[in-house]
Amino acid sequence: MKLIIINGPNLNLLGKREPEIYGSKTFESYFEDLQSKFPSLELSYYQSNIEGEIIDKLHEVGFDYDGIILNAGAYTHTSVGIGDAVKGIETPVVELHISNVHSREEFRHTSYIAANAKGVLFGFGLKGYDLAIQSFLN
Ligand code: DQA
Predict the structure, then answer these.
(1) How far apart are CA 15 and CA 26, in angstroms?
(2) What DSSP character marks residue 111?
(3) Exposed end of the chain (fewer CB within 10 Å): N or C?
(4) CA–CA separation, 118 and 103 (whole Å)
(5) How far apart are CA 135 and CA 138, in angstroms?
(6) Where are the beta strands (DSSP E) in the chain?
(7) Number of Cα atoms under 13 Å in the Cβ half of residue 9
(8) CATH topology of domain 2-137
(9) Average pLDDT of 122-138?
């Protein structure tokens, strides 16, 4: 099974960025934990701070992979383009947020992705990525 985690803007700063919200572990280190936990999966990871690059990656993997775990960061709340890309591809997408976006500012309550996602996970910290992977397993 081929799964990809796509992280959007500012998520390259995990470990340093607002650790009281996002924790103190880097994503690279957490990704190694995931690879060890799910050795039979073809698991890949992509991060970009650029909206168009995230759209390009969704197009590239979206007719071939078995699942996409997408944390589009702040673009979740603003990007019609990423929302349209999720709608236009065939691979199911799980929308994910590390923090509980519904307990934060009002603007974080809107998602341009959720309506076309297979499901949405938020508020479980980095563990959400593990739960999202499990949602693709039988
Ligand atoms: C986030 C929540 C977004 O509102 C925020 O802009 C992020 C991270 C999360 O993982 O909790 O960058 O997607």
Answers:
(1) 4
(2) -
(3) C
(4) 22
(5) 8
(6) 2-7, 42-47, 67-71, 93-97, 119-122
(7) 12
(8) Rossmann fold (3.40.50)
(9) 96
Q: Output the ligand 1 site: residues, CB below 6 A.
A: 10, 71, 73-74, 76, 97-99, 101, 108
Predicted TM-score (pTM) of the model is 0.97
**The ligand 1 atom nearest the CA atom of 9:** 12
pLDDT digits (tens, 9 = 90+) for 29-62: 999 999 999 999 999 999 999 999 999 999 999 9
Domain locations in the chain?
A: 2-137
Strand pairing of 93-97 and 2-7? Answer: unpaired
Render 25-53 in DSSP notation, one character per residue: --HHHHHHHHHHH-TTSEEEEEE-S-HHH
Q: How far is the CA of 90 from the centre of ligand 1 (A)?
A: 24
Both tokens of residue 19?
Answer: 């650790």
